[in-house]
Amino acid sequence: MANVTQMHRAREGEVTSEARRVAEREGLDPEQVRREVAEGRTIIPANVNHLKQKLDPMGIGISLLCKINANIGNSAVTSDIEAELKKLHTSVHFGSDTVMDLSTGGNLDEIRTAVIAASTVPIGTVPIYQMVMGVKDMADLTPREMLDVIEKQAKQGVDYMTIHAGILLEHLPHIKDRITKIVSRGGSLIADWMVKHREQNPLYTHFDEICEIFKQYDVSFSLGDSLRPGCQHDASDRAQLGELKVLGDLTMKAWRHDVQVMIEGPGHIPLDQVPYQIFKEIELCHGAPFYTLGPLVTDIAPGYDHITSAIGAAVIGQFGSSMLCYVTPKEHLGLPNDDDVKQGVIAYKIAAHAADIARHRPGARKRDDELSKARFAFDWKRQFELSLDPETARRMHDETLPNEYFKTAEFCSMCGPKFCSMKVSTHIETWEPEAVDRKP
Question: Are 314 and 351 in contact (CB under 8 A)?
Answer without folding.
Answer: yes
